[in-house]
Design brief:
This protein is mainly alpha-helical and 225 residues long. The chain has 2 domains: 2-42; 96-223, Cytochrome c-like domain (Cytochrome Bc1 Complex, Chain D, domain 2, Orthogonal Bundle). The protein contains 10 helices and no strands. The longest helix is centred in the first third of the chain and has 27 residues, at 2-28. The structure holds heme C. Heme C is lined by residues 136-137, 139-141, 151, 157-158, 160, 162, 164, 166-167, 170, 175, 178-179, 183-187, 189, 193, 201, 205.
């Protein structure tokens, strides 16, 4: 009895294998013959639907529309991001390791420390810098940059002051790059803050730092060029 049970078990297994094989063969044949069959019987197929195919553009762009650039380098300060004007120098790429090296050997990483601030720290720039700073930086660094932002209350690791001796001594290009690619626990914000807005923020950070009574604070003039 036990033997015949095993035999019929083996028989079932064979049938299952055969069925699986048939199914695979049907799938390999593709859906088209099946579709053709359905069209022959019912006159239509599920394939033809009033839906969009993957990657199909649901609506062509209106005539005369200008595509947005994928980068974050607007034509000029305060302008909509339509991509940079032809020939505008784009800052060279910066790697996380460059940010650390720039602290110990600033001259070896000109792509970080050698960047020149293209925006004068005038009223307009500082105003824009404040808006962006309070949106993007203050949650961690605090409205005054003292490292007492709301996020730092729950996660003190983010409460880094921008008034430390190290922060005061950083070149403008370093702060720009910090916003662009981050460092350590500080996230990269370059995809949210455009090229010119980064420089406005640099000007604003310098302004905040100037308010700290610290003789080592960089001369406010140094960010105006
Ligand atoms: C999510 C929290 C967070 C946000 C938002 C944030 N930072 Fe930071 N920031 C940090 C942390 C944490 C560090 C320290 C990173 C490290 O240890 O390497 C830091 C470091 C820095 C430093 C270097 C300070 C030093 O002494 O070396 C600068 C400059 C800086 N941030 C500027 C900014 C600016 C400008 C913004 C807004 C555009 C900003 N940060 C937004 C968390 C943040």
């Amino acid at each position: 009895m036990a033997e015949s049970g095993a035999e019929s078990g083996a028989g079932m297994a064979k049938v299952r294998i055969w069925l699986a094989g048939a199914l695979v063969a049907l799938m390999a044949a593709g859906c088209t013959p099946m579709d053709d069959l359905l069209v022959a019987v019912f006159g239509r197929s599920m394939r033809e639907q009033p839906s969009f195919n993957p990657y199909e553009n649901p609506q062509p762009p209106p005539e005369g529309s200008v595509p947005f650039a994928s980068g974050n380098f607007p034509v000029g300060p305060g302008q909509v991001n339509l991509g940079q004007a032809e020939g505008t120098p784009v800052p060279a790429p910066v790697q996380p390791a460059d940010m650390l090296r720039a602290l110990t050997a600033p001259d070896e990483v000109p792509q970080v420390t050698g960047l020149e601030n293209p925006l004068a720290a005038n009223e307009e720039s500082l105003e824009r810098g404040q808006v962006v700073f309070e949106r993007a930086c203050a949650p961690c660094h605090g409205v005054e940059g003292q490292g007492d932002g709301l996020v730092s209350e729950v996660a003190p690791v983010f409460g880094v002051s921008l008034m430390s001796d190290q922060a005061l001594g950083l070149p403008d290009g370093y702060i720009y790059s910090m916003i662009r690619i981050g460092r350590g626990a500080m996230p990269a914000l370059g995809h949210q803050i455009t090229h010119y807005d980064r420089w406005h923020v640099v000007n604003y950070v310098r302004e905040l730092q100037g308010e700290v009574s610290n003789e080592d604070a960089p001369d406010a003039e140094s960010s105006e060029n």
